[in-house]
Amino acid sequence: MTSRENRGAKRRVLRLLHDRDTRVRLTKIHAHILHHHPHGSDLVSTCAAARRPSYALRLFRHLSSASLLLFGAAIKVLSLVAASAADAFRLFSLRSRSLFPDRLTLAPLLKAATHLADLRLARSLHALTLSSGFASHPPVAVGVIELYAASGHRFDAQNFFDEMPRRDIIAWNLMINGFCRRGDVESAIGLFRWMSERSVVTWNSMIAGFARRGRDAVALQFFQEMWDYSGFEPDDATLAAVLPVCARSGNCDVGSKIHRYAERKGLLKDAVHVGNSIIDMYCKCGDLASAKSVFDQMPRKSAVNRP
């Protein structure tokens, strides 16, 4: 095969890898790649979209030459699924002697470690980010915070956060969400009030955090502040967090307002869990007719939304 024909074969394979039917034809594409020898990282990366981590691992082991790009692609695939997180570290231990990780490898490696929630591993990886000089790279820094938070060590996460030279909104949101999930809503409020930039995720974390603590009045206050003053529109996660608050507190007025909003935004059609929450709210408020009306409107139903 000439060099021009080889380049053409590579282009055809790359188009196949990004095709909507890739999941079905993955093994056929693999066979084509083995014949024409384009870069294996393209196929390994495609395994991420296809949710085929075990296939990616077998493919990686089969390839004779493992570049840092291929190494990173394999780690990224394995980091996406909790069940494959341990495989990511087995792969890392096999290759780290010959291929020192870079910033593109460290970020998914930290993500894989998050699934394992192991403090010793968290500190080892933190040390690796420092020794490699990539600790300040935003995706790596965010990965360290998320890893410490998942391991239940918010003080380590806080110390790292405090030392960051630049903190993007993702880092702030991870810290706030970590505090809220562990019930420390006062620390979360402190960070929230210091933020110069917020997002829907920020507001959702605060609303859900107070709701989980049973502080319904404060959760509703944050919801109203978000709706009226923040400039952000509630999404399905916002509604799923605040509707149970309306149900517990018997606040049908706010619940009905949310129902009308969900109808306007098409959330009853697109998000079954929002419809379920609205039905539950109406049932607990004693308005069975409205609950049945919402149920009848929902094009998709689940076993839990029968009024």
Automatic annotation (TrEMBL):
Keywords: Membrane, Repeat, Transmembrane, Transmembrane helix
Alphabetized GO MF terms: RNA binding
Keyword Acetylation belongs to the record: no
GO BP: RNA modification
Transmembrane annotation, as ranges: 68-89
Residue spans of the PPR repeats: 168-202, 271-305
Gene3D superfamilies listed in its UniProt record: Tetratricopeptide repeat domain
PANTHER family for this protein: PENTATRICOPEPTIDE REPEAT-CONTAINING PROTEIN
Name under which the protein is recorded: (wild Malaysian banana) hypothetical protein
